[in-house]
């Protein structure tokens, strides 16, 4: 077939280094950009097959998110803007690792297994971040799409969530929105302006926000969007990419892990600040207290703010919809307690990883999910959206109920339901703070985090650890869970769990307790138990120094 001849010819231009093996993980493929040319070409091929199979547009995003600038990566986006299915993650790995002469065999194997009609039209949307390597790598993706006769649309520089949004708009025939960057800015900014226009006496202070763009794509795009916001939000942008290096000493991951402000951001006490990550699908907030102490508001705090706001609006609107917050075991115990006991919101715990959270959130009328690292969004069921819409349009409804329904309707429009989106989440948080008349300090004071500590223990083989109950308890090796339980009992408000890393032979330990001293001591004792019972290597874990 002529099609496969073209694949052979073009794949010779994007040859695979012999013996190189890569794995498609939660974040797609990610590694040093020099090793990715053949992978990109082949992901162009795979996206074209996926499009023929689903008879829909598929997205391919070239990015390595919060990794260093010299890395790159690629993620596939399914028709509704969601992540690609596990079976196709397997095909991605298979195709990426096939040696040059086995490529056609691997390709035909997928076509056969999925009974794909090669006569079916294919459409692929491609986007890229600002890394120096993204130009040539996104071109390799396009080469792959064209080699199998697929149609492509190259969006050029976009954030990861923007590409997810475009794919969803395209496949809903525009019901979700217009599949252009301008359409994205218009939909979000109009919703934001509608939400904030009725807030009385918003001062310039309340409209001011410092943004750390991680020297990445988010900085470019939030600049483009600013004119659409008509001064309803006044942004001061730092790390805009003009001089600094992507993610270097800045960005959401740096701020969350180091618990400090990014380089170049001058904060005065009480000013609201936020940081995006490299591809703008994560956000964290922070401020400096009166004594110069750094305060972080992570994904748990964001989920709490948003779910509390939604719950109040549902009550005011008299809508009987079930709202739930989906967390992982890493969520701080204080947030879980506040949501369940004070707010009376359902809390569901899942395994770590966005796809598990997203999946669980789909089971409720309204599902709010955020990982502690700041990646998250809100999902509304079709039925929930219809009920909100109906009430907002009903002229017989009393004023308070209708006002709440209109706020809910604009909130739905402000949220990018396909995936975590730093720009959309930022606008949502800003709107909620404005509507509720809250300062960043008042938001932070909703609950106080329990002191916690995370440690890593090197082991010979991470697979000896097997967990259950959303990774909160271990079932093997024998005796480990009992050892953890007996150590947790010694401390107040304590909790601890261990889980194998997804990528390296280490076991991750999490501990929290009523004081930092106790949390540190518990984390160390649990680390020792892991080291002794799960085949630790190297030196025994030492207690944390003063």
Written description of the protein model:
The structure is a single chain. The protein is of the alpha/beta class. Among the domains are: 4-157, Alpha-D-Glucose-1,6-Bisphosphate, subunit A, domain 3 (Alpha-D-Glucose-1,6-Bisphosphate, Chain A, domain 3); 452-534, 2-Layer Sandwich (TATA-Binding Protein), CATH 3.30.310.50. 42% of the residues lie in helices and 19% in strands. The protein contains 19 helices and 19 strands. It has helices spanning 2-13, 37-54, 86-97, 103-113, 134-147, 160-171, 181-196, 204-207, 217-226, 252-258, 299-317, 333-342, 354-361, 382-393, 399-414, 422-436, 440-444, 480-488, 516-533; strands at residues 29-32, 57-62, 71-77, 123-128, 151-157, 208-212, 234-238, 273-276, 283-288, 294-297, 323-328, 346-350, 366-370, 376-380, 452-458, 466-468, 473-476, 495-500, 506-512. The strands form 5 sheets. The chain has a 5-stranded mixed β-sheet, with helices on both faces. A 5-stranded mixed β-sheet has the order 7-6-8-9-10, sandwiched between helices. Strand 4 (123-128), helix 5 (134-147) and strand 5 form a beta-alpha-beta unit. The longest helix has 19 residues, at 299-317. The radius of gyration is 24 Å and the shape is globular.
Summarize the structure.
This protein has 546 residues and is α/β, with parallel strands linked by helices.
How does the SSE layout of this entry go?
Blueprint: H1 2-13, E1 29-32, H2 37-54, E2 57-62, E3 71-77, H3 86-97, H4 103-113, E4 123-128, H5 134-147, E5 151-157, H6 160-171, H7 181-196, H8 204-207, E6 208-212, H9 217-226, E7 234-238, H10 252-258, E8 273-276, E9 283-288, E10 294-297, H11 299-317, E11 323-328, H12 333-342, E12 346-350, H13 354-361, E13 366-370, E14 376-380, H14 382-393, H15 399-414, H16 422-436, H17 440-444, E15 452-458, E16 466-468, E17 473-476, H18 480-488, E18 495-500, E19 506-512, H19 516-533
Parallel strand pairs: 2-4, 4-5, 6-7, 6-8, 11-12, 11-13
Antiparallel strand pairs: 1-3, 2-3, 8-9, 9-10, 13-14, 15-19, 16-17, 18-19
Helix pairs in contact: 2-3, 2-5, 7-15, 7-16, 11-15, 11-16, 14-15, 18-19
